[in-house]
Design brief:
Strand content: 15-25%
Order of helices and strands: EHEHEHEHEHEEHEHHHHHH
Helix content: 40-55%
CATH architecture of the largest domain: 3-Layer(aba) Sandwich
Largest sheet: 8 strands, mixed
CATH superfamily of the largest domain: NAD(P)-binding Rossmann-like Domain
Distance between the termini: 32 Å
Radius of gyration: 21 Å
CATH class of the largest domain: Alpha Beta
CATH topology of the largest domain: Rossmann fold
Oligomer: single chain
Number of strands: 8
Length: 272
């Protein structure tokens, strides 16, 4: 599907509508940041286009040039390996426009060498789809304070936003970008523990998921540290103490730290 409304202007344009970019699109529509009709997405995959058009109600196209020409703010959500190629292709249409890269590993200096746009890097995650994203932004050399305000406004609509230096983005990629997969592994393991103790699988998974959700919400709202919250649950010699002792024996916490470090190192290796 290609739009023919050449004179129309869209508030946001996405080049790429895959898992991460699609999650951001769905979250912004869900949060009513703007109407679905104000978002244009360029995506080569037909099924992905149909899904975004159908469940999110946004406008879709196959042409990146339409995004560059018709969108006020452009978000690039393609795979890292093709980001610089895409920027080079639209360079003539994005001069002095705000362009936000959602890709891991692609450095601002290399993007700025391809076009005269005002680039920022943003690392977010798939919980954006339900307005629970964890997002970090990093400025480019042409970024204005107004650009930062605008980007904060967009991503604050779907979750938490912090500003970091670009050299810290790889750590954000590991913690926030990859982090949901680590949390899902924790949920899966908790549920498996429940079934091993005799609970039905569906009930065990539901309890594990809600337990993680509730613990996270309490951590966000209470202002207490994880250590303080943990002490609220532990009774000396009780069930929680026994479970934590086993986690210490198996170095569960160390494993999670190692997972974040490994993901961050991979992000640095991918850097272009």
């Amino acid at each position: 599907m290609t739009l023919q409304s050449g004179s129309r202007q869209y508030r946001l344009g996405f080049i790429g509508g895959g898992k991460l970019a699609g999650s951001v699109v769905r979250g912004l529509v869900r949060a009513q940041f703007c109407s679905a009709e104000e978002i244009l997405v360029a995506e080569p995959n037909e099924s992905a286009r149909e899904a975004l058009s159908g469940d999110a109600g946004v406008k879709v196209t196959t042409q990146n040039a339409e995004i560059a020409e018709q969108a006020d703010v452009i978000l690039i959500g393609v795979k890292p390996g093709v980001v610089l190629q895409v920027i080079e292709e639209i360079a003539g249409q994005v001069a002095d426009k705000l362009v936000i890269s959602l890709a891991a590993g692609i450095r601002l200096t290399n993007m700025e060498a391809k076009a005269e746009a005002r680039f920022l890097r943003v690392m977010t995650n798939t919980p954006a789809a339900v307005c629970q994203a964890a997002t970090a932004l990093a400025r480019g050399t042409r970024t204005t304070d107004e650009d930062v305000v605008r980007v904060r406004e967009i991503f604050s609509a779907i979750g938490l936003v912090v500003e970091v230096e670009e050299e810290q983005i790889d750590a954000v990629t590991a913690l926030a970008g990859s982090g949901p997969a680590f949390v899902y592994t924790v949920i899966e393991a908790l549920a498996a523990g429940g079934t091993a103790c005799g609970l039905p699988a569906a009930e065990s998974l539901g309890l594990a998921t809600q337990t993680v959700r509730g613990a996270a919400q309490l951590a966000l709202e209470s202002g207490l540290s994880p250590e303080e919250l943990r002490r609220m649950v532990i009774t000396p010699g009780g069930t929680t103490a026994a479970g934590l002792a086993e986690m210490d024996k198996l170095e569960t916490a160390e494993g999670l730290v190692a997972a974040v470090k490994a993901a961050s190192a991979r992000g640095r290796e991918m850097g272009l």
